Description:
By secondary structure, the protein is α/β, with parallel strands linked by helices. Helix content is about 35%, strand content about 20%. Helix 3 (about 105-120) packs across helix 4 (about 135-150).
Amino acid sequence: MTSEPHSRRLGDHGPTVTSPALGCLGLSGGYGPTDDAQGIRTLHTYLDAGGTLLDTGDFYGSGHNEWLIRQALSARNRDAVTLSVKFGSLRGPGGTPGGNDGRPEAVRNFLSYSLQRLGVDHLDIYRPARLDPAVPIEETVGAVAEMVEKGYVRHIGLSEVGTDTIRRAAAVAPISDVQIEYSLLSREVEDGILPVCRELGIGITAYGVLSSGLIGGSSSTGGKRAYFPRFQGANLEHNAALVAGLEKIAAEKNATLAQLAVAWVAAQGDDVVPVVGARRPDQVGTLLDSTRLPLTSDDLTRIEALVPRGAARGERYPAALMAELDSER
């Protein structure tokens, strides 16, 4: 029997959602071929199990992901689902990255298309996927705040931004959460971003919990993994061996490595909500069953000893993508 997700509130200003959230990127490519019918069944499986938080982006599959979610929600109660949508990452034909656009007029344009594709009259959380260096964050967040006033958006989120940007954004309007990579292999958020978010009452939605499948998934270099430094050459050998050391702890708890990794992120605080992708219905049960693994302080100490902070080799993204991350500055 699949476990039920837990409920957590996203900061002082955000909605109450289920943890873990379902990351929907993999349903529209990025990790290999997809099947729309299977993707819709995967969404139904998560929602039927009591999950509420769906994380997507208007650029996932260049709009395909929002269309897919619309199919899954067509016969459901809209108010029972929390839709978190990222915007601003530009794509060309074939998915070629084209920079980021955070201009107020672009915000309104992106939003109108997302509402149409999803078939809803509002989004629960709306966030720029990356900081547009040419546009002050005050202008981007201010434009979203106007959409909150008009009823098209309920809450404002951020993604992959640094502490200065977080403070400036929070001075304009209440921020529900910052979405950022956080996993056993990516813990830089602990330096400044997590403490600042806690100071300001902002939640964390943690993606990349399984490090693109390196933890408890596939270590193959197919799809976008071929370009990720952690999946290349000696880096891959080192990182795979590092993660393998956790297998004993997972086995003791009758759990998978993936479940242990999700549980570890969830154990970092009630203000942290793991966002985990699934491409098949059976994977949904696996991610939700991570909630039955409360980790003790001794467990966390053992895990820390096996995978100490900074032990992974290779950056989490290729150099060109790392350069876009305000969170890394």
